[in-house]
């Protein structure tokens, strides 16, 4: 590790040609004020637009900039992990490229790090430019996850955070495939604190986390840090077995002591479909866990790097 690098800024990018130049300028302006050696490490997650070309040109003119190009799109959480794997700084900051997380907050994080905190995460006190549905579902998700796991994962936080070198080294040794990075950082422990900020509207372009990706991230988080969904089968089994037994007693009573019976098949079919639906839900939950076990057993690499730029300068090793 190059001990001369004080700060590494890891920026995962995917199809961000409309904003990436502005992101670079703002990050550079902020980091220049620190007066310490730093690196801006962009991880191109298989962008199909001109993101890679723009970053390559920036990398050629600025020796503080490094670029990792994936061979294809591996996902946001994997891109963050690749950045951490290749970061050299004593403190590593993860920030998205869309400028919803203001780069200026990094200076506050650095101050907290200098006070001795090893993880400094950014908590959103206000979210601009987001729909009520997204805000509501995010609030429900964070609180549900917190209630289902023994790991203290802070609510209303994303991946925007600073981690100390020792925390980064721990993260490099965690190789699970379906990753929820902010949860893994919380799981690792160490001394943690928060800084509050207002999340801005996206500077340009479209969100890279539509509903389907948010659902997948939620599933990764739930299955990585809690086995309580598996217990759902036991709870539902006891509940519906008890209800079925009570209904059986009621049916016997009705048959013996009343003249009222329902000879139709509608109630039987409705009950059968209901319980079959419950069974399929339970099988789906079990299938999610089994699928993740299968991913782990294949032991494939987390990502494949197509090329690197900016490495090998100043005596660093370059792949």
From TrEMBL:
Regions crossing the membrane = 232-253, 265-290
Q: Where found, per UniProt?
A: Cell membrane
Gene Ontology cellular-component terms for this entry are:
plasma membrane
In what way does this protein cross or attach to the membrane?
Answer: Multi-pass membrane protein
Sorted alphabetically, which InterPro entries does this protein's record hold?
Answer: Glyco_trans_2-like, Glycosyltransferase_2, Nucleotide-diphossugar_trans
Q: State the UniProt keywords alphabetically.
A: Cell membrane, Glycosyltransferase, Membrane, Transferase, Transmembrane, Transmembrane helix
Give one GO term, molecular function aspect.
Answer: glycosyltransferase activity
Every copy of the Glycosyltransferase 2-like domain together lies at: 8-168
Mostly located where? membrane
The family assignment reads: Belongs to the glycosyltransferase 2 family. GtrB subfamily.
Q: This chain belongs to which protein, by name?
A: Dolichol-phosphate mannosyltransferase
Organism expressing this protein natively:
Desulfoscipio geothermicus DSM 3669
